[in-house]
Amino acid sequence: MIGVVPAGLLLAAGAGSRMGRPKALVHDERGSWLQRAVAVLREGGCDPVVVVLGAAPEAADLLPPGVRAVLAEDWAEGMGASLRAGLAALDAASVEQVVVTLVDLPDLVPAVVARVVAAAETGRGEALARASYDGEPGHPVLIGRDHWAGVRDVARGDRGARDLLASADVLLVECCDLAGGEDVDSLPGSPGHQRDADA
User: Fold this and answer.
1) Global pTM value
2) Domains by residue range for the chain, with CATH
3) Which residues of the chain have pLDDT under 50?
């Protein structure tokens, strides 16, 4: 039996005010954060991959062939707007699950995505799972299609799917042996590193 193949959803719409530029345009010594995040989703087993842009729509030029860019017109509202736009773009796709992650997780690796996907495979459309790091919930977050309507209902401002995930039975998949799970809110080498528990 062929396993469930989830879609990948990369949220990269923000202006990155603390970073000083949109995170979709940030590069470090290993290259583009945007391109690396797309590769992590693809190599982790996601197909198709959708990228939500907003403050920097020109970042679509950085995407490889086969990756769809979606513009969240109301991106300034916060992460919730990006999540709603991304799920809407996937409504017509023949997928039962979506793996959601953020562009500002430069240490995320494909093995984390693959581990979360494998752990949630039997849940199919009902699945809810997310990576955890030393017991703390983080990204990526896997959301079965049965929950997409509920996510859209609660995804407002910067809360994303937090309210739904807080009230549901979510499978935590420990990944601290693979990555740190920290989102980066400032330029490399400066303070401002924290784990974002939202989705």
Assistant:
1) 0.91
2) 7-180 (3.90.550.10)
3) 1, 190-197
Q: Which residues contact 149 (CB under 8 A, 6 or more apart)?
A: none
CA 38 vs. chain centroid, Å, equals 10
Amino acid type, 195: R
Query: Taking a C-beta distance cutoff of 8 angstroms, is the pair 195, 138 a contact?
Result: yes
pLDDT digits (tens, 9 = 90+) for 12-51: 999 888 888 999 999 999 999 999 999 999 999 999 999 9
Alpha-carbon torsion angle 38, 39, 41, 47, nearest 10: 90
Number of H helices, E strands in the chain: 5, 11
Q: How far apart are CA 49 and CA 60, in angstroms?
A: 13
Indicate the angle between helix axes 33-43 and 110-120, nearest 10 degrees: 40
